[in-house]
Structure formats: C-alpha cells, structure tokens
Design a protein that fits this description.
single chain; alpha/beta; Arc Repressor Mutant, subunit A; Rossmann fold; 6-stranded mixed β-sheet; 3-stranded antiparallel β-sheet; 8 helices
C-alpha cells in the first residue's frame, strides 16, 4: 500500500479520527502501508501537530514494545469558547422562549454537527478522568451522550422510563422529582459491570432530579461516578439535587426574557 506521503498522512489521520480515544497498533499501520514503524511514528508526530494547531485534540503515543497511538479529542479553549458562545446566541433568540421560562433546543441537540461538537466539548471537560461507560436517560440526552461516549471511546448506557422486554432483565430505581412525585427509571443489567466508572450526561438540569436518579442507578450497580456533565443548566433553583456537575451552558431569566450564557468552568 506504499504511496505518496501526503496520501498516507491523510489515510492514517482518518483511521484515528474514526476511532477516537482508541489505541491503534503502529506496527499494524506500518505493515498496512508497507513502511517502517519509524516512518509511521514520524507521520503520527505530524498529525499530532496538525490536530493541536486546529484545536481538535492530540495524539497520545505508547512507546512500549507493541507501540500504539490514539487520537484524544480535546477542543482548544479558544475553539470551545467560540462554539459555545455562538450556540448561546442562537439559543437566546426570542422565538425559542417556551412557557415556564424554558427554551427550545431539540433542533440543535438532534443535529449531528451540533451534537458531535457538543460531544467533543463534553468529553474534553472530563479528559484525564477514567471513564468506562457514559450513562444518560431517554430521550433528548441521547445524542449528546452518544457523541460524548464516541469521543471517549466507551459504550453508552441509556436509562429508560418504562421497561421493554427487548431490553432484557433490568434494575428499577424510584426517585423523587422536584414536584414531589416519584418516578421510576430502568437500566438493563447488561449495560455495565460492577465497579465501572460511569460518566453521567444529561441534556437539561433544573432541580437535578433526573441526574440524581441516574446517580441512584449507578449506586445500585455498584458503579463509581466519574462525573456529571450537563448541556444546559437552569440558574434557578440554585440548590440542585446533584451536589457536583459540569455544565456547558447556563439558562437565566431576566425581566421575562430567557438568556443563555457559557457556564463558567
């Protein structure tokens, strides 16, 4: 498969981009392209420099005997800030205001391009944290959580609000809502194992009851919570059912108008 270096660089970069946070064998890559491992290592260094310059992430190389490398998505602070600020402006539009001080964002979070970028941003917020599985609840949290899991190179587990026979055996957790009701959340028993490190991802948090319910699910499975990430958090109420979380955007209401800002890190 030996060819021009430019073509080889593009093809090698594409392999890493399609398998983020997953280590690929440099020996196999060298064999596939009929070049030495040293040449491939030099190629990876060039790709790493390009990714960093674009603010997309970085290459992590294992110098061991079986040597491998992985592309770790991690938006630069400038790229992250610009993307979230542009999104905040769109969401602050008057036509998006809904009753109850809420805003409409389904068209954005279900758009692949927005969801992919949000997933990379969310994953970047937890880089350096060991995560075995990403967990969310149906329905609107799924796109964000899926792309977060994709960026982290781990599977996704989805909590359901009704049990389906096709999901197999499930664990049921009852949790209180902010309104005083009690809801039930189901998680299939095959989604993750005991002692797994779980990253909880939610699309919106007002009082935090749904995220708290997912914390209970993790507890029932004997899993360890690596963190809680939220796309949009409401400024009110200030006290949430979840003690610690990382939000990308913050929703506030002033003089009857909804305003979205980038949440402080």
């Amino acid at each position: 498969m030996r060819g021009q270096r430019t073509e080889r660089l593009v093809r090698i970069a594409s392999r890493f981009l399609f398998s983020p946070s997953r280590q690929l064998s440099l020996t196999k890559v060298a064999t596939d392209f009929d070049v030495s491992k040293t040449v491939v290592s030099d190629d990876v260094a060039i790709i790493d420099a390009a990714f960093r310059q674009e603010g997309l992430g970085r290459m992590v190389v294992d110098r061991g005997r079986n040597g491998g490398a992985a592309f770790v998505p991690e938006m630069s602070e400038e790229r992250r800030k610009t993307f979230l600020e542009e999104l905040a402006v769109v969401l602050s539009g008057k036509d998006r205001l809904l009753p109850g001080g809420l805003i409409y964002y389904s068209d954005l979070i279900f758009h692949p391009l927005y969801a992919l970028n949000l997933g990379y941003v969310m994953a970047g917020s937890f880089q350096g944290t060991t995560v075995d599985v990403v967990m969310t609840s149906e329905v609107k949290g799924i796109p964000l959580a899926m792309f977060t899991a994709y960026a982290l190179g781990v599977p996704l587990a989805v909590c359901r609000f009704r049990n389906r026979a096709s999901d197999g055996p499930a664990v049921a957790v009852h949790y209180p809502t902010a309104g005083g009701d009690v809801r039930t959340m189901y998680m299939g028993m095959r989604h993750f194992e005991r002692d797994s490190r779980v990253l909880i991802v939610d699309d919106f948090m007002r009082g935090g009851s749904t995220a708290a319910g997912m914390l209970q699910v993790a507890q029932e499975f004997g899993a360890k919570v690596a963190g809680v990430g939220v796309f949009l958090v409401s400024a009110e109420p200030q006290k949430k059912a979840v003690p610690e979380y990382t939000a990308l955007l913050r929703l506030s209401n002033a003089e009857g108008a909804a305003k979205v800002d980038v949440a402080s890190r």
